[in-house]
Amino acid sequence: MPLILTETQDAIGTIVMNHAQKRNALSEALIGEITTALECFREQNIRVAVLRAPAGVKVWSAGHDVSELPDRGRDPLGWSDSLRVLVRAIQEFPAPVIALIEGGVWGGGCEVAMACDILVATPEATFAITPAKLGVPYNLGGLLTLINMVPLPVAKEMLFTAQPIPTAQALNLGIINYIKPAAEIEAFVYGLASQIVANSPLSISVMKEELRLLASARTLSPELFERIQGLRRVVYDSHDYQEGLNAFREKRKPRFQGE
Ligand code: LCV
Q: What number does the ligand 1 atom closest to the CA of 111 have?
């Protein structure tokens, strides 16, 4: 049973995340199907991709598939982690990716949505960044995506509280481009996509890549990188990280001890 549905029409490709029973948790299997679909779109010279869940969902994506996170002692969000692979696939896709968002966007789902180039959400959508809720050591790529999107105090509030923010606040912060009612969002997104399709795909794909390179242009000395990796190891080596995973698996609230 495929975990996504895809469609292409008029140089616009659509990917529908369709793993309802796990609330589109970003498992390796779901991510593999999305990245394969993006590769097919690239071969078909698709000029805009739309990433969405089925109309009317309550959850756009429940974020990283927690059941696939490693136990303590191993970096859960390293370079080759499937969620990082998906974020890079979206950012490096040679055409704009529009996130059509209905429902709750959780954890790594926010990073996937924020990796998209244009975000359009319904008024009921919410956005929650959750590493603190699980005791997970967020990675630099994820933090960079976030601080490129929102002011530092807002990034800290979202990270430290792990609470969902409503679409209206996301619009005010510039995280999303538009809010559209559920009855109108599809026509609006595909209208936007058609405007983009009418323009030069070469100019657009080069500008997208220039902006990606500019946004990621940060100087980080090897010593600073190692310091940061050491800090992250403190978290994924901790009992709290294991407690976060155990609590999720046992469907109970975690009891973090700070060690
Ligand atoms: C695996 C799941 C998941 C899930 N993984 O339905 O950003 S970081 O660093 O935090 C990163 C590590 C990350 O992204 O972590 C994940 C962050 N995500 C969350 O904290 C959201 C966790 N999920 C929920 O709070 C609820 O599932 C929501 C509110 C999304 C939907 O609630 P609802 O009552 O509609 P259930 O909770 O009953 O979930 C339905 C099934 O999907 C599984 C969940 O375990 C359940 O499986 P079973 O039917 O086998 O019990 N599921 C949900 N989210 N992230 N599996």
A: 7
Q: What is the C-alpha separation between 113 and 91, in angstroms, rounded?
A: 11
Domains identified in the chain and CATH numbers: 4-195 (3.90.226.10)
Ligand 1 midpoint to CA 249 (Å): 10
% of residues, the chain, pLDDT over 70: 100
Check if 133 has its Cβ closer than 6 Å to any atom of ligand 1: yes
Tokens of 204: 């657009």
**C-alpha to C-alpha distance for 49 and 27, rounded to whole angstroms:** 21
Q: What share of the chain is helix, strand, coil (3-state, %, to 5)?
A: 50, 15, 35
Could you tell me if the CB of 59 is within 6 A of ligand 1? yes
CA of 136, closest atom in ligand 1 = 9
Q: pLDDT of 19-32, one tens digit each? A: 999 999 999 999 99
> What are the pLDDT digits (tens) for 90-123?
999 999 999 999 999 999 999 999 999 999 999 9
Sign, CA torsion 218/50/189/186: negative
User: Which residue of 23, 101, 146 sits with most ligand 1 atoms within 8 Å of its CB, as the best mutation to test the pocket?
Assistant: 23
User: Please, are residues 38 and 44 in contact by the beta-carbon 8 Å criterion?
Assistant: no
Q: What is the pTM of this model?
A: 0.97
Regarding the beta carbon of 108 and ligand 1, being less than 6 Å apart is answered yes
